[in-house]
Each structure stands twice: as C-alpha cells, then as structure tokens.
Amino acid sequence: MHGRISKGRRKGAAPFSRLILALCMICVAWPKWAQSGTLEITLADTGTPLALITLPQPAAWCVLWRHSVQGFEVKDCYEMRNAQMVLVWSHLPDFAAGLDHIIGRGRQISDGQGGYIIEDINEAVAGNAYILRPGSMAVDHRIRAGDYEISLSRLAERQRVRIALIP
Description:
single chain; alpha+beta; eight-stranded antiparallel β-sheet; four-stranded antiparallel β-sheet; 39% strand
C-alpha cells in the first residue's frame, strides 16, 4: 500500500459528508429552536424569585383571571417575537365593569358565546416586563404556558409582581 495513490472516494467519506450536512442543517434551523424563552416571575419590590417558566414552542403564554364582579375568566395572551414580549390578543367574555375594547387597539370580534376577542393587538411590552398586582384567590391571577399553569395569587396575593421575558 505504500506509495500507492488511490483514486476516487476514501472509505468512510460519505458518513462524514452526511454529518457535515446534518450540522449545517442544524445551524440553519437554530434560530427557530432558539425562540423558546423563559418567564421570570419575581416580587417587584425585592426581586425575590417566585417562579421560572420555560415557554413552549412557539413561545406563547396567557395571563388569566376571574373578573372580580362577574366571576368569568378574562385572558391576555402574549408571544415572544424577535426576543420581544408582545401582547397579541385578549378574550373578554362580557362588557363588564372595567372591560372594553379601545378603538384603534386591535380588532374586536365575537367569541360566538356572547363575549368578544380582541385580536391583532400586537403591542410590544416595554423592557420585556411589566408589574401586576395579583388579586385574591377569588380572582386568581394565573399564567398558563402550554400545559403548565401557575397561580400568581397563591404565590403573592396583593403584592407587586414583575413578569419578565428572558429571551
């Protein structure tokens, strides 16, 4: 074998080429995989951590609560878009006290059950975070991300809570 020049492909080159191709495909797809983020829930005044929520793919979640007078569930839903927290839509089952559609902020449609959905809000949240004061357990402010749900009222009833997106 010494001194002999082999023509053609070396044995084992095909599996190596496939590996390089697979790695290139992963690199191209990586930005999609990297879209998952984390919600960090802390006490606003002290920074004390309350919860870390790994977001599902696509990175979306809702803040839910029961209306303090009527008792029905209200929902504000967010997505992570280009590493930015964005309020996308809201579900309001009734025109009860304090709930209304602001003209020019999204598009109001019927939910088919007497309530309404405001879609296409598409409002970026400044600094990827906001403060919420969860109500009592009767109101039960919660965050739902995929199949996971956590009660903010149970963790920090009537306290200032910071909800932050960590891209």
